[in-house]
TrEMBL record, chain A:
GO cellular component: NADH dehydrogenase complex; plasma membrane
Subunit structure: NDH-1 is composed of 14 different subunits. Subunits NuoA, H, J, K, L, M, N constitute the membrane sector of the complex.
Domain of life assignment: Bacteria
Protein name, UniProt field: NADH-quinone oxidoreductase subunit K
TM segment ranges: 6-23, 28-48, 60-83
Sequence similarity: Belongs to the complex I subunit 4L family.
Localization: Cell membrane; Membrane
GO molecular function, one term: quinone binding
Catalytic activity: a quinone + NADH + 5 H(+)(in) = a quinol + NAD(+) + 4 H(+)(out)
Keyword entries, A-Z: Cell membrane, Membrane, NAD, Oxidoreductase, Quinone, Translocase, Transmembrane, Transmembrane helix, Transport
EC nos: 7.1.1.-
Membrane topology: Multi-pass membrane protein
Role noted for this protein: NDH-1 shuttles electrons from NADH, via FMN and iron-sulfur (Fe-S) centers, to quinones in the respiratory chain. The immediate electron acceptor for the enzyme in this species is believed to be a menaquinone. Couples the redox reaction to proton translocation (for every two electrons transferred, four hydrogen ions are translocated across the cytoplasmic membrane), and thus conserves the redox energy in a proton gradient.
From TrEMBL, chain B:
Keyword Transcription: no
This protein's GO CC annotations: endomembrane system; membrane
The protein's name in its UniProt record: NADH-quinone oxidoreductase subunit L
Annotated localization: Endomembrane system; Membrane
Keyword Transmembrane helix applies: yes
Domain NADH:quinone oxidoreductase/Mrp antiporter transmembrane: 135-421
Topology with respect to the bilayer: Multi-pass membrane protein
The NADH-Ubiquinone oxidoreductase (complex I) chain 5 N-terminal domain, residue ranges: 69-119
Parts of the chain that traverse the membrane: 31-54, 89-106, 118-135, 181-202, 214-234, 246-266, 278-299, 372-394, 414-437, 466-485, 505-529, 610-628
UniProtKB/TrEMBL annotation, chain C:
Phylogenetic classification of the source organism: Bacteria, Bacillati, Actinomycetota, Actinomycetes, Kitasatosporales
Source organism superkingdom: Bacteria
Enzyme type, top EC level: oxidoreductase
Gene Ontology BP terms: ATP synthesis coupled electron transport; electron transport coupled proton transport
Location of the protein in the cell: Endomembrane system; Membrane
Stretches of the chain forming a coiled coil according to its record: none
Name by which UniProt lists this protein: Proton-translocating NADH-quinone oxidoreductase, chain M
Length: 99, 631, 523
């Protein structure tokens, strides 16, 4: 099968994730969309690795997974504490990050 | 002998330093110290003079080099003195009259609590004036030149608590500074032309440069002389300078400092000889001032201001003579010396009158004082006869010579200058007779002063009358002594050069005309002020009289054009600096601030809007990369 | 290796700053004496430098050189030439007077807490500034100079913003606002200049491959370092802009009146008499030394700006109502003279400009410090609040007058010598510029005498009736400065001797010869 198709899939997944980030308000959903974008990138990286015949892309994919895991840990912690203080899971309620 | 020259300056300089830094401890003896040091300087002058007389005319000039002042590549300025016959004449005049006036001031300033300081300033003046006349280069002369300006500033404003005195002092300094600007430009021109500004090299090599350069230097020197000697157009300060104590007016603003301009021009004779145009301008300035000062002198009711007008006019004579070239230089100096005697005497007499009249200066409130102040009357009278040129007295000889020399200038100029000088003699006779009549003759017109004290005119103490007597003797005999046998001409000729002028009129004609002018002037004054009583309140007077009372509107002109104009200029510049120059910078700051205020709105705190901008940015970067690759 | 005298001279005040800052909060008087002691020690070391300096010897003497940031060829290179010697002398001389004059300026009004120690901070900052200024006069490495040029802004910022003049009109809050405005303005102006200079410093390194001043000058002189005309001009402009802000030259001057008006008098002296001299000094050493061709190219514009500064500064001084702002504008006029002398590129002009830096430092210090004593007594900077002081405090008025006379360059006082040299030097190369500059002497007389008349003469103002005359401490400040003005006015030879050879070097850098007088040229 033509590996380019995987790239199309990755792009599609990334677009879904990105639009999810922009459209949805619920923090958890938003968070999942980010994971989706990360995984779309992983898919693209692995595909490139295959296309070019070396392991560089796969190595980077592992890094991405590690970063994603770390991000999940920190991100969920933030979400939980946010929910505790605001009793809401909507991102738009937390708009204090400004001057 | 030459090592004594520095002593001339050192003595009064020491006095000034001690008196001004010494503090209250010296209050009781300060005036004696000042007087003794002035006299010491006079004694040194006399010793040097005696030594000079013993030598041949050619090697009389002494020279003393103290040290190199400003040694810079291509630029040599030395502290060095030169004492030749011209300087010697001035040294004797300055220290002699100066000592007399120190003595006079002991009595005059007796009740002033700041007398010590007054003597300190007087000594400072003597030192600066001596530096001025014995410097051997123009830069050191400039030091003395500004030094006397400073002393004059301090002494005019001696009674600083009076706002009028403070502003008169400031005015004198400022007007003089305009003249000083001329002197510094002249020195700079000398430097670029001759590479030096020592008298010797500059005056010897005037032949090697163009007439244009010499004319420029000459005109700049004239500007300097106009400032210091109160010549038109920089004369306005002299009348106001009468705010100072009277001994100051006698010493600085009559006998010595104001004649520095004449010294400068005569000293720079070689430059003016090479620049006939500049020389003519000098003569014209002198002639204009001669009439200007005389007219002002006619209208003033303040005795000191009337005398100030007269001083201006007499210095006009000297400048006129100096503008005639070698036929006039010596007579300018001769008139300067005789004028030093009689004008100082007149001022001291005026001071004596004021001393007896509760410091009243308005002549309309004098009258009939001859009985109450006999010594003052006689000495003042002799000074009066001398200044109007009464035959046989000092002024007669020196003024007559100038009028002769003016006619001898030749051509139309000669006729015009000569006639102006004659006219001036008539006006001099008029205004001096007026002063004399209003002060000493007629009826008593005394008025109680502001605090209600009736004046009790009395003769002044000895310390004041003795200097007046000495000066009166000088005013009577000095002229004759100088003129007979051409003593003065022979004395100065090696320094200034001399040419005998050939007047189109015979000597007898000129003398006759002078005497006629004198009689006319005295006659008119007698008719106006002697025959009928003088009103206590000044009559309105003609347009000319009213203008003359206001110094021929010079001050009004200055006020409107310079003072007001200057105020507007500085005020608008302050505005420009604040709103334009600073405004541009502040404006830049404000617009950066405004811009960041707008940009701040983008940071609205919504995570999703940040996400949009991230995606947007990424999209732009990708698009740009693709585009670049495509191109 | 011999004793590093130059480093010691710069390090002593820095050590003094640390020691002063470490004095316990309650021991304020000790801190003052410590600061004074270190500043006097620096003066002694500066005197040793002056004595060891041989006027006829090498261009840079007592040199020191150590590797510093080897990767970029930055070296810790020190050396002193005649101009540097004169200016170090000036700095070391003035600082003790600044400290003595500001003795009570930083006493806390109320004890806020036991750790509140403004006095220590004030004197430590002054010594810090001294250390940096001295080192910047010594640095012969462009990068080292740049760092010092910028670093001295930090203590200056705190001195201006943190220790304002207590004599102000209006409320405390308003005064604090004014002060912080002035301090920020000072900082921003100078940082802007410094930033552009940094670009030029880096550019210079790219072109020349070294930061060493002497190496670059030498390479340019013997032709091994070619610089394209446009490159040279851009680099010159980068340096000149920074120095023109510091100096300050019209129209980059507006920070100075604010800073001098709001700072205490001693700090104002520090700004105008010492720190600003770094700007003019650097023009002479770096602009003319590194970029001679570009300097000549820029001369007409610079001279025009200097003339504008002279006349404009003096006219604005006439229009001021605030004593310290008046002196600030007078200083702008004087800096115009200094820059004029530097760029006239004649021996007399440059010697005059160097002497001018020293003499202006002393005369402004005298005038400003006495003005400071006056202002402290009355609690107001406005001229209109005075009148008749001469009657109640004659010594104060007398010293003020002498300071003023020095400012208007009266012959016999030191500034006359330098001003006349600058005028002559300018006149021989650019007659018209010389004549315009000469008008400055009339304007100077106006602002000085008007100031004196309004404050010191006339009827006694009610508010000054009980004003005490100068006290012993204040006399100790005023009298030596006046004595020095008199001495250098009559006998400037000790200074001209060290300055002349340095000026000859600069003249050969820019390959200029003095115009010859007409008559001698004919012979």
């Amino acid at each position: 099968m033509n590996p380019v198709n995987y790239l199309y899939l990755a792009a599609l997944l990334f677009a879904i994730g990105a639009s999810g980030v922009l459209i949805r308000r619920n923090v958890i959903v938003l968070f999942m969309c980010i994971e989706l974008m990360l995984n779309a990138c992983n898919l693209a990286l692995v595909t490139f690795s295959r296309m070019h015949g070396n392991l560089d892309g796969q190595i980077v994919a592992f890094f991405t997974m590690v970063v994603a895991a770390a991000e999940v840990v920190v991100g969920l912690a933030i979400i939980v504490s946010l929910f505790r203080s605001r009793h809401s899971a909507s991102v738009d309620d937390a708009s204090l990050m400004k001057l | 002998m030459e090592n004594l020259i520095a002593l001339l300056v050192a003595a009064p300089l020491l006095g000034a330093a001690v008196l001004l830094c010494g503090g209250r401890r010296l209050d009781r003896a300060g005036h004696w110290l000042g007087t003794v040091l002035a006299a010491a300087s006079f004694v040194v002058g006399v010793v040097l003079f005696a030594d000079m007389l013993g030598k041949g005319a050619e090697d009389r000039a002494l020279h003393q080099h103290l040290f190199s002042w400003i040694p810079v590549e291509g630029f040599q300025a030395d502290i060095a003195f030169q004492l030749d016959q011209l300087s010697m004449t001035f040294v004797l005049l300055i220290t002699g009259v100066g000592t007399l006036i120190h003595i006079y001031s002991i009595g005059y300033m007796e009740h002033d609590e700041r007398r010590r300081r007054f003597f300190g300033y007087l000594n400072l003046f003597l030192a600066a004036m001596l530096i001025l006349v014995i410097a051997d280069n123009y830069l050191l002369l400039y030091v003395g030149w500004e030094g006397v300006g400073l002393a004059s500033y301090l002494l005019i404003g001696f009674w600083q608590h009076k706002p009028s005195a403070a502003s008169a002092a400031k005015k004198a300094f400022l007007v003089n500074r305009v003249g000083d600007m001329g002197l510094s430009i002249a020195i700079m021109l000398m430097f670029t032309t001759f590479g030096t500004f020592a008298f010797g090299p500059v005056l010897e090599s005037t032949g090697e440069t163009s007439e244009g350069k010499l004319t420029a230097i000459g005109l700049m020197l004239l500007l300097a002389a106009c400032g210091k000697s109160a010549q038109v157009p920089l004369q306005s300060w002299l009348g106001d300078a009468m705010e100072g104590p009277t001994p100051v007016s006698a010493l600085i603003h009559a006998a010595t400092m104001v004649t520095a301009g004449v010294y400068l021009i005569v000293r720079s004779g070689a430059i003016f000889n090479g620049a006939p145009d500049a020389q003519l301008v000098v003569a014209i300035v002198g002639a204009v001032t001669l009439i200007f000062g005389a007219i002002v002198g006619c209208a003033k009711d303040d005795i000191k201001k009337a005398l100030a007008g007269s001083t201006m006019s007499q210095i006009g004579y000297m400048i006129l003579a100096a503008g005639l070239g070698p036929i006039g230089y010596i007579f300018a100096i001769m008139h300067l010396v005789t004028h030093g005697f009689f004008k100082a005497g007149l001022f001291l007499g005026a001071g004596s009158v004021m001393h007896g009249m509760n410091d009243e200066v308005d002549m309309r409130k004098y009258g009939g004082l001859r009985k109450y102040m006999p010594v003052t009357f006689i000495t003042f009278g002799l000074g009066y006869l001398a200044i109007i040129g009464f035959p046989g007295l000092s002024g007669f000889f020196s003024k007559d010579k100038i009028i002769e020399a003016a006619f001898a200038k030749g051509g139309t100029e000669g006729w015009i200058l000569g006639s102006v000088a004659l006219l001036g003699a008539a006006i001099t006779a008029f205004y001096m007779t007026r002063v004399m009549l209003m002060t000493f003759f007629g009826e008593k017109r005394w008025q109680p002063d502001a605090e209600g004290h009736e004046p009790h005119p009395h003769e002044s103490p000895k310390s004041m009358t003795i200097p007046m007597i000495v000066l009166a003797v000088g005013s009577v005999f000095a002229g004759g002594f100088f003129a007979i046998g051409d003593r003065f001409v022979n004395w100065l000729e090696p320094v200034t050069g001399y040419e005998h002028g050939h007047s189109p009129l015979s000597v007898a004609t000129v003398t006759g005309a002078t005497v006629v002018a004198l009689v006319i002037g005295v006659g008119i004054a007698w008719a106006m002020y002697g025959r009928k009583p003088v009103p206590v309140l000044a009559p309105r007077g003609s347009l000319l009289t009213r203008a003359a009372r206001r110094d021929l509107l010079q001050d009004d002109f200055n006020h409107v054009v310079l003072v007001r104009g200057g105020e507007h200029l500085t005020r608008s510049l302050v505005y420009v600096d604040h709103s334009l120059v600073d405004g541009v910078v502040n404006g830049t700051a404000a617009s950066v601030g405004g811009l960041s205020g707008r940009l701040r709105k983008l940071q609205n705190g919504y995570a999703r809007s940040y996400a949009v901008s991230m995606f947007g940015g990424a999209a732009v970067v990708i698009a740009a990369t693709l585009l670049m690759r495509a191109v | 290796m011999s004793f590093p005298l130059l480093t010691a001279t710069a390090a002593l005040p820095a050590i003094g700053a640390i020691v002063t800052a470490a004095v316990p909060a309650a021991q304020r008087t000790v801190a003052k004496w410590v600061a004074l002691f270190f500043s006097l020690g620096t003066l002694v070391l500066a005197g040793v430098v002056f004595a060891r300096f041989e006027p006829g010897g090498d261009r840079y003497q007592l040199t020191e050189s150590r590797a510093w940031i080897a990767d970029f060829g930055v070296r810790y290179e020190l050396g002193v030439d005649g101009i540097g010697v004169a200016l170090i002398g000036l700095t070391a001389l003035l600082i003790p007077f600044v400290i003595a004059a500001g003795w009570h300026d930083a006493d806390p009004l109320e004890t806020k807490s036991s750790r509140w120690r403004p006095t220590q901070g004030f004197f430590a900052l002054i010594l810090m500034v001294e250390a940096m200024v001295v080192l910047s006069f010594l640095a012969t490495d462009v990068f080292l100079f740049y760092i010092l040029f910028e670093a001295m802004l930090i203590p200056m910022y705190f001195l201006i913003g943190g220790f304002g003049d207590r004599a102000h009109a209006g409320s405390d809050e308003n005064a604090a606002k004014q002060r912080s405005y002035a301090a920020v303005k000072f900082l921003l102006y100078n940082l802007a200049g410094g930033l552009i200079m940094l670009a030029a410093v880096i550019g210079l390194y790219v072109v020349a491959g070294t930061f060493s001043l002497s190496e670059i000058v030498e390479a340019r002189a013997n032709g091994t370092l070619e610089m394209a005309t446009s490159t040279e001009r851009w680099l010159f402009l980068g340096f000149f802009f920074a120095f023109a802000i510091k100096a300050p030259l019209w129209p980059l001057h507006t920070w100075l009146p604010n800073a001098m008006g709001e700072a205490t008098a001693p700090v104002a002296v520090l700004i105008t008499a010492i720190v600003d001299k770094v700007g003019t000094f650097a023009m002479l050493r770096f602009c003319l030394g590194l970029f001679p061709e570009a300097s000549k190219w820029a001369t007409p514009v610079v001279i025009a700006l200097a003339l504008v500064s002279i006349v404009y500064g003096a006219l604005l001084a006439v229009g001021q109502r605030d004593i310290k702002r008046l002196i600030a504008y007078a200083s702008i006029s004087h800096f115009g003279f200094i820059i004029l002398g530097i760029f006239a590129m004649t021996s007399q002009g440059q010697s005059g400009a160097t002497l001018y830096m020293v003499n202006h430092g002393i005369s402004t210090a005298a005038l400003l410090l006495v003005a400071g004593f006056l202002i402290t007594r009355r609690g107001s900077r406005l001229i209109a609040d005075y009148g008749g002081v001469q009657k109640v405090a004659p010594v104060l008025a007398g010293t003020f007058l002498i300071g003023g006379l020095a400012t208007l360059s009266l012959p016999g006082l030191a500034p006359f010598v330098s001003e006349f040299l600058v005028l002559v030097g300018t006149f021989s190369a650019y007659p018209v510029a010389g004549i315009i500059a000469t008008s400055g002497i009339v304007l100077a007389a106006i602002y000085v005498l008007v100031l004196y008349q309004r404050t010191m003469t006339g009827p006694v103002n009610e508010a000054v009736r009980t004003m005490p005359d100068l006290k012993a401490r204040e006399l100790v400040v005023a009298v030596p400065l006046i004595a020095l003005l008199l001495f250098l006015g009559v006998f400037p030879k000790p200074l001209t001797e060290v300055v002349n050879p340095a000026v000859e070097h600069t003249m050969s850098d820019v390959q200029k010869k003095d115009p010859q007088p007409e008559v001698e040229a004919a012979k």
